[in-house]
Write a structure and sequence with these properties.
The chain has helices at 16-23, 27-36, 58-74, and strands spanning 13-14, 44-45, 54-57. With 75 residues, the chain is mainly alpha-helical.
């Protein structure tokens, strides 16, 4: 199965709750994925303060999802 390119999609930032909804996991599981899976996309902070929000780039998250699907279906 060929991996779809998500590079041409409009750039969209997701907050943690949006990421959880998109991949159907709890917030605690989201943070476990960030710790356990080196391929899981890393968020970026929008600002310098500790309270600055974290955002994920949607197409990076979708590419990660496609890799997991492909790996599950091929093995």
């Amino acid at each position: 199965m060929q991996e779809q390119s998500t590079e041409k999609a409009p750039l969209r930032f997701l907050k943690a709750r949006d990421v959880c909804d998109k991949i159907a996991v709890s917030r605690s599981r989201l943070y476990e994925l960030m710790t356990e899976d080196p391929e899981f996309p890393r968020p970026f902070k929008d600002g310098e303060s500790r309270q600055a929000l974290n955002y994920w780039v949607e197409h990076e998250l979708e590419a990660w999802m496609l890799r997991r699907i492909n790996r599950a279906r091929s093995g």
